[in-house]
Amino acid sequence: MLDEHDHRALGQRLDLFHLQEEAPGMVFWHPRGLMLYRLLEDHVRQRMREEGYREVRTPQLCSQPLWEQSGHWENFRQNMFCMPEGDRHLALKPVSCPGHIQLVQRMAPSHRDLPLRLGEFGLVHRSEPSGALHGLFRLRQFTQDDGHIFCAAEQVEAEVVRFVRSLKAFYAGFGFDDVQVAFSNRPAMRAGNDALWDQAEAWLQSAAKQAGLQYEDQPGEGAFYGPKLEFVLKDRLGRAWQCGTIQLDLVLPERFDLHYVGASGERLRPVMLHRALFGSLERFIGVLLEHHGGALPAWLAPEQVVVASVGAGAAAYAESLAARLRLAGCRARADVRDESLSKKVLGSHEDGVPFLAVVGGREVESKGVRLRQRDGSQRDLPWDDAVAWLSAACQPAVAG
Predict the structure, then answer these.
(1) d(Cα 97, Cα 285) in Å, to the nearest integer?
(2) In terms of domains, do 230 and 379 share one?
(3) For this structure, is 367 an active site residue?
(4) Which residue ranges in the chain fall short of pLDDT 70?
């Protein structure tokens, strides 16, 4: 029996998603859950546009030589889903990095194109042991908000600083005010020589200091291709969740002989930065649900307003108000069932709806609305004021 605060139980109660044995480690998203999923995507997509990223999409299935060149075949093969094709193998992508490198090679950038920023909501697959699977926290299929920056050496530190300086406000918009940072350096099993790692670690540490970050060292916890800064969120129970990351990579550009054309026509090697805000969208949703106990911030609630009619004569008024709220940008519906108000209040609470607009004969006559919030507080407002207040209350409180 799941604890009521477990994200899997919350997912069932809020009708967001389910998991079943026929698809181990993969999620069946319900309409309400997919709405939440899309809201997270849209939030990151808006940020990508503001920061000059170009969204791309890369193939799910790539052949063995690509993974050999990237180093994943040697360093990550045990976590990849592979299938034979003649004398070689194909593999479902566990990451999007090699695909983005292929795109940059085709773009053949010059120094004028840098920094070149690519972003993808990359659906990835990893062969996790069945005993390690745990709800949305550990899956075999999930989506990364994957971004890669290809830049000149002299642009590296500015790009890292640019990324990390706005993260605090970004996470605060989801209700996470305690963000810690860890620096992970070279692991024992890695690609690239010590000179590359010395340079990568020095650049990343310098950028972290420029950004004013205080971090804890995590010796040996870097990716096989480079060191990384990891951003760890503390939830309301004091648990730590590693979510965002930025990684400095001098290895993959070398392995793929990636280059750009310099100001004098020379071939120069770019630096590659790997960055993510959520890490895994699915995992972040699980963290969000448990952090908020299912009572998501209004801007993230799949349904933001339920307009509940009291008495048969108020049904048309409730439908009109719900339609007006939708035009104002709220996710609203009318509850005009022939049920008591107490049942409608309970239903909206169970569904995690932050605002209930109650309309009965008195509200129809006065062209007003009685607003009820999660904490039980109530107030009466005229129609237009209620629409304006709800429209504002349903927007993100903090811009990421």
Answers:
(1) 23
(2) no
(3) no
(4) 1, 397-400
